[in-house]
Amino acid sequence: MKALVFYKAGEFKLEKLEVPKPKEGEVLVKIKAGGVCATDLKILKGEKGIKSGTILGHEFSGYIAEVRGNVNLKIGDRVSVYPIIACGNCYFCIIGKRNRCLERKTLGIDVNGGFAQYTLIPKEVVSLGHILKLPNKVSYEEGALLEPLATVVNSMDALNLSHGESILIVGAGPMGLMHLILAKVRGASKIVVSDLLEDRLKLAKELGADFVINPREKDLVKEIKDLTGIGIDKAVVTVGSAEAVEQAINCVRSQGILNLFAGGGKEYTLNLDLNKIHYKEITLTGTQNATFDQYKRSLELVSSGRIKLKSLITHEFPLEEYYKAFDLKSELKALKVILKPND
Length: 343
Ligand SMILES: [Zn+2]
Ligand SMILES: [Zn+2]
Hints:
This protein has helices at residues 38-45, 91-94, 123-127, 140-144, 146-159, 174-185, 198-206, 220-228, 242-251, 274-280, 292-303, 322-330; strands at 2-8, 11-16, 27-36, 54-55, 60-67, 78-81, 84-85, 105-106, 118-121, 131-133, 166-170, 190-194, 211-213, 232-237, 252-260, 283-286, 313-318, 336-340. It has 343 residues and is of the alpha/beta class.
């Protein structure tokens, strides 16, 4: 089978490997769609170290090609995989936060993932029930986007965004736009999106942003003050920029919440006036990945038709053309890019 293997910073190889054979309790998934994520780019650039020889791809869907042992899945089942291996026994697993498991491993990062024609799903993932069957009306492409969508559900939960509240979304990349789509579903009253790229702001407007702001052209903090009077209720920064975070803190009203959705490099250190947090009683939160519950809620949002993700998929490529996907992503010329290893 074809597989995209990471070796070292700047080096992926498309390789021909044996199709893995499932052992007792494992299943083999034939991959139909794999989403390329900013994390994959970080790995390629060497900003996130992973083991050499790992098949990337943590956002994927496909169908069951083989099962071994007493498993509640059958050949042909269409599935999306919550890509987390959790111990089930640590503090975080017991409180239902398997994404924070102390022994956590993620498919496509720590163990082989979905940028291949087939991937073996470890028995821990199978026995935890982390393989979700996709209803027929949910496409494989949407199935591959459940993972990123779940991370946005996590972010929205941290923000506790309620009906009628205003929100500032910093960054109109695929994850910022997913925040926008979800903010609409949650009934936000005023959705403001900021980005430096005009074409992304245009798309944000088309997707229902009430206001779009390019902080290079306008003073974001002043604009938010003008729009809201007291500052924005909730804000999320979806780009790895300390400057953007500092700006967002100044946009949030007293007792508002700011969530940091993106990590950054070495320069991602805040110069923070603590008085702003203290006197304005601002809550600062961070979110990364998602709980299994949030993953299930993502499937529910998509299968009920309340969330449509198609407009975020700008490109699809066969696995062989993975480099096009990575080039477009790093040049910010694509939103979600889907790799199709079996087409
Ligand atoms: Zn991702
Ligand atoms: Zn655990």
